[in-house]
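Show me a record, fold above all:
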Amino acid sequence: MIKAVIFDLDGTLIQTEELKARSYAQATHLLTKRMVSEEDVLDVFGDLVGLSREKVLQGLVKEFQIEFKSSLETEALFEIEQKLIEKRLEIYHEILEDVDMLSEHFCEDTLGLFRKIAEEKHCKVVLATMSHLLEAKKVTSVIGIYDKFDLILTKDDVENGKPNPEIYLKAIEKLQLRSNECLVLEDSVNGIKAAKAAKIPVFAVTNSITRKSVLESNLVQPEFLVDNMKNLSGQVFNFIQSMKDQ
């Protein structure tokens, strides 16, 4: 029996993955003195979705290190990473203050499922995100769901980010449930890997940034892949019902 549904945040409840990707792309474009286009960054960002901030920085700096070293006149990768995160956060925090822009990126079908589960008390609702708490609180407050969660876990609660299963194992521990009593909704390869490593059933709710990498990964069976988001609630509740019957 499913007793908790665990939601990822970025790319699952709100398309902040697109906004984060844009902030990284703009920051990289500016810091490399426009040698790297925003499109170049977006092309590689799909493989980095769901990773911790540190891993994303390392991935981008490694990919464009020649341009970064040339424009910033330093060979120190750590120094480049620091400059990139400072510029990227400056851009991203400006985006987070734009409530209208955030509202345009709500994942309405996933939010509809969330509200149905939360309001009708089908089971507990949990947030497990690689965003830091302040960012997660800001975004979920704009959506209007921050106080609806039974448990919130963020990057600040774990040492290892996805695809390491630590955040999901911690959720199970805090909920005092078994892995087969939970269900995860994730949009990225790294998030799906984390859930599967924790032995929790996981539905893939992809978006424009993650769809290609998720499909190519073959990590989820067809019944756990949501091709049409309008079918999300039906697929999830059918699965929950099937678990009741076992």
Residues 17-101 form one domain. The chain has two domains: 4-15+105-245, 17-101.
